[in-house]
Amino acid sequence: MNFWEVIFGDGRCLYLWYGLQVTLVLTVFSLILGVIIGIIIALMRTSNFRPFNHFKNTKFDKLSKFNPLASLGKIYVDIIRGTPLLVQLLIMYYVVFGSYNFMPKIFVAAIAFGINAGAYIGEIIRGGIESIDNGQMEAARSLGLSSWQAMRLVILPQALKNSLPSLISEFIALLKETSIVGWIGLNDIMRGADNIRFQTATAFESLFAAALIYLALTAIFTRVATRVERKLKEDDN
């Protein structure tokens, strides 16, 4: 069979079409959750919360520098970035939600991908926050803003803008990483390609079609994100 017959014969293209919908929905949910977690982790890593500061200049001086929020954020990042995403996905599906059969697989996968992406996005945003001159925080505080208001209204928007190129790369990586959800039986693009492969006993055509779809999605996403980045730079000028 030629490429057209393999993909479009007997309506087999519907496997890829339905898989595309699952991939897009999963990516959007994971992205939203990942950004939320990432911002929280970045704020934790850059916080100045030191509950034992009153031990400063005593024999417990080291304890005065302890920041529990930053430490928890670092532990989270180290664990998530130090373990394979596939392992995290399987733990989320078979262990965390193993007894909750009513939970849709796409939500379980979105939580797993969101938690994973949150660690990487958190580090990206943290770098963006630390790239902002300390004088801007001081200027915001001198205008009467609290630390939280200064971070939310002044520092964080600039940090997100500075981090946009790296965030775009992470979003694209997230889109491609969703291709492993077939391990928990979710019918995404790759599972659709596998279904075609099983029915036609061919591999190249279905996998090539899946690769083309991913390539088109990343190209579209990159183009949109680049336009947004360019628009933001024009607004600054």
Mean pLDDT: 88
Helix content: over 70%
Number of strands: 0
- Count up the helices: 11
**Strand content range:** under 5%
**End-to-end distance, in Å?**
56 Å
Instruction: Return the structural class.
Output: mainly alpha
Major β-sheet, in short? none
User: Order of SSEs, N→C?
Assistant: HHHHHHHHHHH
> What coarse outline follows from CA principal-axis ratios?
elongated
Q: Give start-end ranges of low-pLDDT stretches.
A: none
Radius of gyration: 22 Å
Please provide a brief summary of the model.
This protein is mostly helical and 237 residues long. The chain is built from eleven helices and no strands.
Describe the structure.
The protein is mainly alpha-helical and 237 residues long. It has eleven helices and no strands. It has helices at 3-8, 13-45, 61-64, 68-82, 85-96, 105-130, 134-142, 147-162, 164-177, 189-200, 204-236. The chain is elongated and about 75 Å long. 30% of the residues are buried. The mean pLDDT is 88.
